[in-house]
Design a protein that fits this description.
The protein has about 220 residues and is an alpha+beta fold. It has 6 helices and 10 strands.
């Protein structure tokens, strides 16, 4: 029986570690940036200079009249926001570089559509509700083991994602805040995704690739 495993080279292993470091740093930076979404500004209300907190969805809330404490609050928020946005921008540039190096070293080989779907879920803050299972999970296993599995063992036209039913309420609450649906998120990865008729937990794009949600 032919050996379906090929060990990664030392350069490939180092590249994976470098790419993973940048990816995790960007995830943390995005989380910090999410905490300062929206804005703060001063507004004159009935002759009083008042600090207003505006949410990303457009809602506004008064934080009180101008004082030493509200000025410190404003200055702290703006500094955190500026630093967070700058860090995200810098790390996104670094990630783009790592992605090019991944291709050069043949490190990152997960199909682009799968990467795009996972990135959309991560950006929406709901990635923790899903776990990739089945054939596509082998990409994670092979990298952890420092090997490559033969292409013929990885060929598949769908990705299975296990939904954590224990967090069902938290998931739907998050989706409500996003004012979206799961198919709406998938269409951000590929606009051609449609729910498969009579299979409400499966979506297919124009290339015939399917995302199957399992509970």
């Amino acid at each position: 029986m032919a050996n379906i495993f090929l060990e990664l080279s030392e350069s490939q292993k180092r590249q994976y570690i470098d790419a993973e470091t940048v990816f995790l740093a960007l995830a943390q930076a995005r989380k910090a940036a999410a905490e300062v979404r929206g804005s703060m500004f001063w507004r004159d209300l009935k002759g009083t200079r008042t600090l207003i907190r505006s949410s990303a969805s457009g809602g506004q809330k008064s934080l009180g009249a101008h004082s030493e404490s509200t000025q410190k609050l404003f200055d702290s928020f703006m500094l955190r926001k500026t630093n967070a946005e700058a860090r995200v921008k810098a790390l996104k540039a670094q990630l783009a570089t790592q992605q090019r190096l991944n291709r050069a070293h043949r490190v990152g080989r997960v199909p682009n559509i799968v990467v795009n779907v996972l990135n959309v879920l991560e950006k929406a803050g709901v990635a923790a509700h899903f776990l990739v299972v089945g054939t596509h999970a082998l990409y994670a296993f092979e990298t952890a083991a420092g090997v490559r599995i033969a292409e013929q063992a990885m060929a598949t036209r769908d990705v299975d994602m296990l939904f954590d039913t224990r967090k069902r309420l938290a998931f739907f609450t998050a989706m409500e805040k996003l004012d979206s649906s799961l198919i709406g998120l998938l269409r951000k990865a590929d606009a051609s995704f449609e729910v498969v008729e009579d299979q409400h937990y499966r979506a297919r794009n124009n290339d015939g690739f399917e995302v199957a949600i399992r509970g």
